[in-house]
Structure formats: structure tokens, C-alpha cells
Amino acid sequence: MSSELSPTFIAACGIVAGIAYLFLLVLYRLHFHPLSSYPGPVVARLSDLFGAFYAYSTSLHLRTLKDHDDYGTVIRHGPNKLVFNSARALRDIYKNEQILKSRAYLVSQTAPGVFNLFNARDPQLHHEKRKLAGRFLTKKSIEAFEPVMMHQIDVFIHQIASHCDDTNVRPVNMTPQTKHLSIDIMGHLLFNYPLNLQTESTHRHMSYSRASFFFNVATQVSSLVDLRVWTLQFLWSMMSRKRYVHTLENVIRNCLSQGQQVKHKLLFLSAKSAVSGDDTDWINDVRTEALWFMLAGSDTTSTLLSALSFYLARNRRCYQRLCKEIRTTFNQDSEIRSGARLASCAYLRACLDETLRMTPPLPGTLWREGISQSSIKPLIVDGHVIPKGVQVGVNTYAILHNEEYFSEPFTFKPERWLEGAGPGEANREAFAPFSLGAHGCLGKSMAYLEASLTTAKIIWHFDFDEAPGMLAVPGKKGAKQQARNSEFPIRDSFAAVHDGPYLNFRRVGS
């Protein structure tokens, strides 16, 4: 009898060992894991593929809200993940020096050791990058940039006017219209470059980058970081990102051709503190940083403006009140600019805040984890001691629809943000659509200004309503679901993805 083991026997042993391992892993994660006492879907407690599946389907924000409804304030959304739904957790997680960005953010690296503002986890490195970028988003810098922004908004108004000057009014799809505006503004802010998406088709492919989609799916499986994820860069480039990156590189090279002064202005986008003789590495570095700046700067404002126009078209009482405020505050178009008059438009700001609450531009969970040092005190989130290696977060969409903090959370009620609103209408401690703390959105002030100016000019120049048959959301059974159907529909692709609303515009007085 031969002493050698047959291939069939070896294969059978491998299968048995694999089954035994999976059985023990399931047993451990369900009953002996440090998070085993936390509720959540069984599949989520067993595998990160739960989050990846819903991220791929762009519905993770909706699933997270449902799971909070089913399981409570704290849910287990992965073997090593806890999602909270409380204002206290917001503070404990996002304004806590013991917490870093999750290592899952490293899936956006293009090479080992190369970091941008988005994926820099080291607090000191992130602080340095944020400080550099912040120089271009100070109050003084935004004021200096405002004339350029205003010109682009005027182009936007002219584009809308072209849809209502004909005998047959043509509906305007606000998603691409606002996306083109916001990308044009970012092109001027970052590069002083006219991308001209509003008037030309050449660069309109920049409206459809899937970089955030790739990132959102990949970050749900943090183990990808251990698989040298920068090798996935090729796949990322293949996912409709190649033309976007190529355009950014051409824009950067155009800036370089304008001389050293412009080149040094772009240093805030580079991890390198000095410009070398060879531009190739420097351009790649700036391009990587600029990609995320462009996406963040354009997606946020586009979602805010598109969703607000949806809610105003659907809520005529709110629409009429805002029209009265804008048209009595400003006597002519040239008066619409930053300053005391715009700041006095309290209902306009309330409409923006209510839109951000109902339709946050970043609807998902921004994952964080504790600093892995044995010398520091235990990490506590909303009274829960968090074991090392566990990722924690608050789902933005879920907390902004939490009835404990916002009464009738699926109803558009700008009045909840005005002085004198009743108790329970709006809890500002739970309102963080731009996140909080050291990693909060740098461009928050600019986003508010851009959205305020654009909305004020739209209201001053035009009346609008929904194009018949083009705004309807399919109804479903159940009172709660019917309430949700009154929301502007978005998909969670890290940044919100949407289409519409389709509106008919008429010049005021016509």
C-alpha cells in the first residue's frame, strides 16, 4: 500500500478544514466576539460583504436607517463595526482626539506612502494639509473670489432663461444644470481655468466620475487595505475615471504654463513642500488631491441646489414665502451679493438647512477608529466602551431622520430652523451634514454662499413649477413609506447621486 496520500484525500481534507474554519468563525462572530451582544442583521454581524452589497446597490443609507428602526440606536453593521444614531455619539466620535479616520480610507491611495487631504490619517499630516488648503477658503479669500462665482451664477441664470424664451417651454433637469455650475466654479477656484461645462460639451464627462462609488464600496471591506489596494488603481481608472483624470492633468499643465506664480499657488494641492525641476511627480500629486477637491466641491452644492428646487416645487407654501422674502429684500439683480441683505434672509437659510437635513450630500457613515495605543484611556462612545480595532460612525442620513431630534422627519419644514420654533422641531446638536471636528468640510461657508446666491437669483428672476409627470416618485404601501416618498430621491455613492427635478421656468411677471 502506497504511503502517499491521494489528491482526492488531500482535497477532501481541505474542504473539511475549510468548513470547520467557517463554522468556528461564524460561531465566534455570533457568540464570542467582543461585539456579539450588539444587535444587527445576521449577515452584517458575520461579514463586511453586507455593507459592500448595499454600497454597490447605492442604498446603504436607506438600509442603515431601516436597521436603526428595527434594532435601535446602536447597531452592528459589520463584524468590527458599530453605527450609532445619537447626538452624543456625533460629538464622541467626530470631535475626539482619540479617534482617527478609519484605515479603510487608505483604499483611495494611489501608491504606498502617498496621502492626500482625504485619506491622510495621521493627525499632524492632516492638520498641515488642511491648513494649506484652508488658506484658499478663508472669509477673505472667498470674498475675493465672489465676483468670479457671481459671473458663473449669471451664466447659470442665462442658461435657464434660454429654456423659457421659446414659445414651447422646455423643462430643465436641475441635476446636470447645477453640476455644471458647481464644477465650473471649482475649476476657477482651484486652477483659474474656464472649464465651461455650462456652455460647452467638451468637459462634461467630468460630471460623471465614479471615483466616489468605487471608494464607497471598497471602504466597506477594510481588509482590502491589507491586500495592497493601490494595485486596484488600474480598475479604478477603468471605471469611467480615465477621461476625468486626463482632463485634470491638462488643466494643471495649463496652469504651469502661466509661470511660477501660478504654480506656487497650486502648492496647497501638493504633498510636496517645494517644486522640483521635474514636474511629473508633482503633477501626479496635485492631480490626486484635486480629484477629491473637485468631487467634494461640486457634488455638495449640486445636491443642495437640486434637492432644494425639488422641495420648493413640491411645497408651494414654502415657495411663496421664500419668493416674498427674496423679492422684497432685493430691488434689483445687482443687489444680490454677500452682505447684510443676504444674511437677513432667514427663511432662505432655513430652506437650505432643511434641505441639507432631508437630503444630505454625504448620506452615509464616515467610519472612524480609535488610536491603537495601550497607554491611552478606553474609547467611550455614547456610554459604550469600544474595543480596539472596532470601526465606529454615525450615519448622516439616519440621524437627520431621527424622530427624537426632528419631528416629522420626512416633511419639509423650513420653519423648524427659525427662531421661536417649537420644542422637538430641530435639534442643532444632531445637525451635522458637513460632519464635525478636525475632519469637517473645509468648504462649508463657500457651499452656503454659492447655494444662497444661486437660489436668490433663481427666485428673483423666475417662477417655476414641476414639469408634469417628471417629478413623481412611485408610491408604496404604508404611511411611513408614503412620507418618505415626499423626499428628493438620492442614491448613496459616498456622495449623493440623483437625477432631476425637471422644472418649467417662467420669467417673473411674464
Word description of this protein:
By secondary structure, the protein is of the alpha+beta class. The protein has two domains: 7-37; 43-150 and 211-235 and 299-507, Cytochrome P450 (Cytochrome p450, Orthogonal Bundle), CATH 1.10.630.10. It contains 19 helices and twelve strands. The chain has helices at 7-32, 42-46, 49-56, 60-71, 87-94, 123-134, 139-161, 174-191, 211-218, 233-238, 242-256, 260-265, 279-314, 316-329, 340-343, 346-358, 396-399, 444-461, 479-484; strands spanning 74-78, 81-84, 99-101, 172-173, 368-370, 379-381, 384-386, 391-394, 462-466, 491-493, 495-497, 502-507. The chain has a five-stranded mixed β-sheet. Strand 1 and strand 2 (81-84) form a beta hairpin. Helix 7 (139-161) packs parallel to helix 18 and helix 13 crosses helix 14. It is globular, with a radius of gyration of 25 Å. It starts with 6 loop residues before the first helix and ends with a strand. Residues 472-479 have low confidence and may be disordered. It comes from Neoarthrinium moseri. Pfam families: p450 (PF00067). The chain crosses the membrane at residues 6-28. GO terms for molecular function: heme binding; iron ion binding; monooxygenase activity; oxidoreductase activity, acting on paired donors, with incorporation or reduction of molecular oxygen. Heme binds at residue 441.
